[in-house]
UniProtKB/TrEMBL annotation:
Single annotated GO MF: transferase activity
Signal peptide: none
Protein name, entry field: Chloramphenicol phosphotransferase
Active site location: D42
Lineage: Bacteria, Pseudomonadati, Pseudomonadota, Alphaproteobacteria, Hyphomicrobiales
Record InterPro entries: CPT, P-loop_NTPase
This protein's record includes keyword 4Fe-4S: no
Source taxon at top rank: Bacteria
Binding site for ATP: G15, A16, P17, R18, S19, G20, K21, S22
Keywords: Transferase
Length: 213
């Protein structure tokens, strides 16, 4: 099934917290032509009731099994919203942290990919070495009480941070990958624009993920 040529372009940025996804999303909104609507984890969690947070931002490791039955529905609703926006000709950039490390596998990424069948989707792996993520966390934490776990001499990398690093890029099928320790957000956006200009590969990453049931 293919949508008409008036449909918007969809870019999904996937990576760990503090990997630089939201900065790339902002650069895309500011630099690319036309309206780019940001439907990512932060905007979606702003709509999610507090007692159901972190919602789709639930970390790897099966920490909140009681939330897990809701998560597939939240993701499904988000991706249907992405499809509606694109179907109306609006471009969408979504910065997310997909993983399947719940108390049991939920297969959410495959379901999401199937909901965007027929749309032009560029799936971007936003990579960042864990050392850089730790530095960014330290900077972000200075001067405020925080929910984030701090590095200590005994535990240089907190376990949840390591889990994100291990789980967020599975299966690791992307149309393009960027490394935010090497490129600025603007340079990442330019690389993504260049990839868009090349036209879609056959099959795209999301087509391959959708087919891998």
């Amino acid at each position: 099934m293919t949508h008409d040529s008036h449909a918007g372009q969809i870019i999904i940025l996937n990576g760990a917290p503090r990997s630089g996804k939201s900065s790339i999303a902002r650069a895309i909104q500011e630099e690319f032509e036309g309206p780019w609507i940001n439907l990512g984890v932060d905007s979606y969690n702003a709509m999610t009731p507090r007692r159901y947070l972190p919602g789709i931002g639930l970390r790897p490791g099966g920490e909140r099994p009681e939330l897990e039955e809701l998560i597939p529905f939240l993701y499904a609703a988000l991706y249907e919203s992405i499809a509606i926006h694109a179907g109306l000709g609006l471009n969408v950039v979504a910065d997310l942290g997909h993983h399947d490390s719940y108390s049991q596998p939920l297969g959410i990424l495959g379901d999401c990919a199937r909901r965007l069948e027929g749309f032009s989707v560029l799936f971007v792996g936003v990579r960042c070495p864990i050392e850089t993520i730790m530095q960014r966390r330290e900077v972000a934490e200075e001067g405020r009480e925080t929910l984030y776990l701090r590095a200590t001499d005994d535990v240089p990398i907190p376990e949840p941070v390591q889990r994100w690093q291990d789980e967020v890029h599975r299966p690791g099928i992307y149309d393009i990958e960027v490394d935010t320790s090497v490129l600025t957000a603007l340079e990442c956006a330019e690389a993504i624009r260049h990839r868009l200009d090349l036209g879609s590969p056959e099959p795209s990453a999301f087509e391959r993920i959708a087919g891998g049931r």
